[in-house]
TrEMBL record:
Domain GGDEF: 1-65
Protein name: Signal transduction protein with EAL and GGDEF domain
CDD domains listed in its UniProt record: EAL
An example Gene Ontology molecular-function term: cyclic-guanylate-specific phosphodiesterase activity
The EAL domain, residue ranges: 74-328
Pfam families from the UniProt entry: EAL (PF00563), GGDEF (PF00990)
Length: 340
């Protein structure tokens, strides 16, 4: 019955010379007896409807008890996340980026970490919850403050870290005072704008026309902050945005780097992105390199820089500082890989 209703509502409607294409999603909960109330039944149906919408709309879903468990789990995580933001209970780890030509450190990416009740919560678990709950601006400012303070300390100590890369979401960029806040923070901590880059995903580039994001990014680039396009090749950015006037660096997504020596398609994609960036005068870095073989192939394809477990894991500030100090005294092993 649900399938007939959903299919029937998808039929085009002609109105005033225009074809309208409606659709509907349905959530279904069945009463099996027991102590449940009508209110409980409606809540269960609503949870099933939520799932139907989340999985692409225009479909139906049946309620299951596991669905309520997942909903309660997310609600609890959101509550814990709000409390963690209030107490600023987040750490920042740093993952180095190095040149494949000589092993020189060209940057470090700041990555948020959260430990809750003795458990390390994966960013892939809590960041989507933060984004859905509208908490990214508050979370982002905590990460920015801690990362910029650390980088400023390294800068004053003469530790070469290249450039600090900060991930920023569309929610944060829509904040009216985002640019002012970031520039004031850099001035307050004494970190030059030339040592900072913002990483955005491709969908942010498509979102700038109606939200003022484009103006914010232009203002920050004019102030000297670099702009990097993260996870390149996995989104929908128009090539009109991929120019030296809009972006300073492209980051090749890890899924194209993984098993590059075994996957001819990945090899062609990475080579095409490298040639595109070189032709447009944009720098490039490959993410997710984990093995010597992947590092060798990236070097052989002409990729200038890399970031990944094959170079270094994300580290707390103290470990990152020691790694940077040690690394500046000796060439990186990628040179040996190339020679071999």
């Amino acid at each position: 019955m649900a399938e007939r209703i959903v299919t029937g509502l998808k039929q085009p409607l002609e109105f005033a010379g225009t074809s309208l294409k409606p659709s509907a999603s349905a959530g279904i909960a069945l009463y099996h007896g027991g102590n449940g109330t009508v209110g409980d039944l409606i809540v269960n149906a609503d949870l099933a409807l939520y799932l139907a919408k989340a999985e692409g709309r225009g479909s139906y879903q049946l309620f299951a008890t596991t669905l309520r468990d997942k909903f309660e789990e997310k609600a609890n995580l959101e509550r814990e996340l709000r409390e963690a933001i209030t107490s600023q209970a987040f750490a920042v780890h740093y993952q180095p980026q190095v040149s494949l030509q000589g092993g020189k450190v060209i940057g470090v990416e700041a990555l948020v970490r959260w430990e809750m009740a003795g458990r390390n919560v994966s960013p892939g678990e809590f960041l989507p919850v933060a984004e859905k709950a509208g908490l990214m601006p508050a979370l982002g400012r905590i990460v920015f403050a801690k990362a910029i303070r650390t980088a400023a300390e390294w800068h004053r100590a003469g530790i070469d870290f290249g450039r600090l890369s900060l991930n920023v979401s569309a929610q944060e960029l829509r904040e009216a005072d985002f640019a002012c806040h970031l520039l004031d923070l850099l001035k307050q901590e004494g970190l030059p704008t030339r040592l900072v880059a913002l990483e955005i995903v491709e969908t942010v580039m498509l979102d700038d026309e109606n939200t003022g994001i484009g103006l914010t990014l232009k203002r920050l680039r004019k102030a000297g902050i670099r702009l990097e396009l993260d996870d390149f090749g996995t989104g929908y950015a128009s090539l009109a945005h991929i120019s030296a006037n809009e972006v300073d660096r492209l980051k090749i997504d890890r899924r194209f780097v993984r098993d590059i020596d075994k996957n001819p398609a990945n090899t062609k994609i990475v080579k095409a992105i490298i040639e595109l960036a070189r032709g447009l005068g944009i720098s490039i870095v490959a993410e997710g390199a984990e093995t010597d073989v992947e590092l060798f192939w990236l070097h052989d394809l002409g990729c200038p820089a890399v970031q990944g477990y094959g170079i270094a894991f994300p580290m707390p500030s103290s470990q990152a500082e020691a790694w940077l100090a040690t690394h500046s005294l000796a060439p990186h092993r990628t040179e040996a890989i190339h020679v071999a």
